Amino acid sequence: MSKAKFILKEPNAKVETLIYLIYNYQYKRFKYSTGETINPKFWNKTAQRVKASKQFKEYPEFNSRLDKIENGINNAFRTLLNDGIQPNNTLLKEVLENELSDNLLKPKQVTLFEFIESYIEESKLNKTIGTIKVYKTTFKYLKEYAKKYKPINYENITLEFYNHYLGFLKSTHNLSSNTVGKHIKTIKSFMNEATERGHNKNLEFRNKKFKTIREEADTVYLSIDELEKIEELDLKASPRLERVRDLFLIGCYTGLRFSDFTQINPENIVSDNTVIQIRTQKTGQRVSIPLHRTVRTILKKHKNRLPKSYTNQTMNDYLKEVVSLAGIKELIETTITKGGKIEKKILPKHKLVSTHTARRSFATNLYLAEVPSISIMKITGHKTERSFLQYIRVTQKENADKLLTHPFFN
Asked: Distance between CA 81 and CA 4 in Å, rounded?
């Protein structure tokens, strides 16, 4: 028996989320974006309609639109059967949209720029500040490109646009390859979301040639010996540097991101002060991390309540001072593709250290200590071993030293 129902894309969201029509027929499942959005607090899951509420006065009209969509899919299914045509998802979608068109129920045509603008506002409630900043910058570049060359809407996001836009970002803004890749990835995210909500039908952005470019960054990690040098520094004369050092070491021995290791509080210390348990801000994952000796020492020093952090940028500036005082000044050659040209620099190691070096150091040091990759990934959140191995920083010599202990070489 065929049956229609409506479900929310994200039923636990705190902001408006998309409503899907689900139609089960002949042991098949048809899923269709209604183009309608609603805050879950106004949704009656049992009735699959909007609740009667003074806060949402337009609920009768809203529910009427859902009724027409439900009638539309039922009519579409019957029409196909009556015409002797075996229903499938493609045909159902086509006939349904004809039904809705006759009822003037086509979703309001929202332009790509209108969608991005509203999506950024919506994301402020459930995305990190860093993500919102990337969204805004990507949107700024898109508007700049449209003003300089031609208007942009969904149908313009093609391979031709992709190739031209890469050149625009590299030449006009002199961006590195990884930054360009980040903005392409964001455009694909915008297009995916717009497609999910029924605004876009152009899927050329999913072509494998419409790819997110990336080059391996010259990032560094700090070895256990180097971390011990940092820990042994006497920084009592400089409280700002002592605070930064302590917070950074917490990151180095927990693998947490800056946004997480700066938010640890007494409630996160569990199992008789042997484990940190925290839900990460970026992914929402709950992770459990054994307390390293250094972490226990620092937590005891601050009575399990870490000092307030500086901003990430300020932390990075002060951190370079701390690492320099520890005598970590090895010269490192770096290369970066910027504006389409390869730039090489030789910099002392301490200038390449940032708060994110803590997380990379954690992963690399555990890997070199023969901790199984899968155990490390449980903490870092990497989904595949391939992505994890790209993340850690192990030199050819360190890899050879690690293999020396393997039975194959003995």
From this structure: 17
Chain centroid to Cα 114, Å, comes to 22
CA 168/CA 174 separation, integer angstroms: 9
H helix intervals, 197-309? 224-232, 239-254, 258-261, 293-301
Element (H, E) at 3: strand 3-8
φ, ψ dihedrals at 319, nearest 5°:
-60, -40
pLDDT digits (tens, 9 = 90+) for 378-390: 888 887 877 777 7
Q: What DSSP state is assigned to residue 260?
A: H
283-321 as b/e: b if 16+ CB within 10 A: eeeebebebbebbeebbeeeebebeebbebeebbebbbb
Phi-psi label, residue 340: left if phi above 0, alpha if psi -120 to 50, beta otherwise:
left
Angstrom distances, CA of residue 275 to CA of 278, 293, 369, 382: 10, 11, 20, 20
CA geometry: angle at 154 spanning 148 and 157, to 5°? 65
Q: How confident is the model at residue 105 (pLDDT cuts 50, 70, 90)?
A: very low
Nearest to 26 by CA among 6, 3, 2: 2
Contact 22, 7 (CB under 8 A): yes
Predicted confidence (pLDDT) per residue in 345-389, tens digit? 788 899 989 998 999 999 889 988 888 888 888 888 887 877 777
245-296 residue pLDDT tens: 999 999 999 999 888 888 888 888 888 888 999 888 877 788 899 999 999 9
Report how far apart the first and last C-alpha atoms of the chain are (Å, whole number): 67
Residue 272 CA: distances (Å) to CA of 198, 268, 300: 51, 11, 13
Please name each of the domains of the chain with its CATH number: 3-102 (no CATH), 112-206 (1.10.150.130), 224-409 (1.10.443.10)
Of all helices (H) and strands (E), which one includes residue 152?
none
Strand partners, 6: 21
Closest residue by Cα to residue 115 from 192, 206, 11: 192
Tell me the three-class secondary structure of 339-373, residue by residue: CCEEEEEEEEHHHHCCHHHHHHHHHHHHHHCCCCH
From residue 405, give the alpha-carbon distance in Å to each of 306, 362, 370, 399, 409: 39, 21, 10, 11, 7
| For range 304-327, the mean pLDDT | 91
pLDDT range class, residue 206, cuts 50, 70, 90: very high
